[in-house]
Amino acid sequence: MNVDGKLLIAKGDEPVYLLPQMANRHGLITGATGTGKTVTLKALAQNLSDIGVPCFLADVKGDVSGMAVAGEATEKLVKRLADLGITDYGFHACPVRFWDVYGEGGIPVRTTISEMGPFLLGRLLGLTEVQTGVLNIAFHVADDQGLLLLDLKDLRSMIAYLGEHAEEFKLTYGNISSQSVGAVQRSLLQLEDAGGNIFFGEPALDIHDWMACDASGRGYVNILDCVRLVQSPMLYSTFLLWMLSELYAVLPEAGDLDKPKVVFFFDEAHLLFDEAPKALRDKVEQVVKLIRSKGVGVYFITQSPSDIPGEVLAQLGNRVQHALRAYTPAEQKAVHAAAASFRENPAFDTEKAIGELGTGEALISFLDEKGIPTMVQRAMVIAPACSMGSAPDDVKQAVIATDVLKGRYADAVDRESAYELLAARAQEFAAAQEHAEQLAADQKAAELAAREEAKAAEKAAREEEKLQAKLEKEEAAARARAEKERIRFEEAARKEAEKAAAARAREEERRRRELEKIGTSFARTLANTFARNVMGMLNKR
Question: Are the C-beta atoms of residues 313 and 337 closer than 8 Å to each other?
């Protein structure tokens, strides 16, 4: 209820107001289960919505959806309002938008791998420091090579690419072990099995769409259906941390405003810090400290203030403490710590009062005009004007179906990114490798053919040489035979000639002898004749 520019949240001995200009100083709503935290959450969110402040609420049980439905003047509620002195209460619904990471209970909520960043992804995947370092290298390589990381398949492809080229990147980006690459890939597979492949992709949520007002100027209450999401605590908490980081990154400095630009209510806030490393706690503390100057209020809802780290708790100026039961020493210590965090009211014992509070009753301390915590008040929270139960499914579906943003986010878009580009590279590399292998095979075949041809030529040459040698041998043999025949012929001819010559010589010798004989005979005859003639002549004388 807006009273003179102040939001009436509760009534006790005195009315308790939340000042709009102090609503961005963050807050805390704590208390045991069933003590009225959700009603207080709705009351705060509806009051802020009514003055034009958009809100975000994580609905982990499904009952926050009732903000889309006007409340009913039940006898019990009317009596409680009358006891608080409120008689002219106007029941009304809030302008609501339903969102759901899984796209089942609202408009799909997506973000890209790049927007999430390696730090939150490392936490989401449960990576060690070394493995987160490999993830960080993957982001750097993707940036340097112009590869968009939009969804999980992009990141899986990038990690695989990193592992395949580890030696190539080692000198530029650092060591990339195959063990770390394998661990990251296994974690990505587990995240995909948990539904992470639905959350990462496009169209990515424009955080400004959670900062809108309806036609009447009331801020939209953006309700994230977390009934299923909270079953994956790491995904739930990382998503909430991403929203804070995204708001801090995109919003400009705003200074002191009359009212926040947007207020976020994080239920089951302890999940943000469970098993969170110091670096993450430091980041949350930094964002909580600095996001106030950008006009954003952050309210954590959990059972005990001890669920919130002290450095973050110190930033939460607006506090609502519902009942806590203390049966164990640890619980008693938590109650004592919760009481000590309030500015003491001499009218009652704060620590004792925490254990005595009834349902819907709370210890409240909001910041005053100077930003100083007011004295703690014991008061009854004024019920919200919307339904305190869950919205009927038909009402919820009607709100989702008529939402102007549904068309923008309903259908996932898978544009060209790292997965497609790396696949194309791999295909080109495979084709080039296949071509190179074919060229190598062709060259090998050519070399083999050349070797076979050379061997055939060598064999032919050897056969030629062998044939030539054979021919030469045969020719030599023929020549030898011819020479032998010539020699034999010449020898025969010589012998024949010699024989003929001998025959001639013998003939000549015979003739000579015959001639000699004839001559001798002739001579003898002649001599005899001469002698006879001489003698005859002599005789005649």
Answer: no
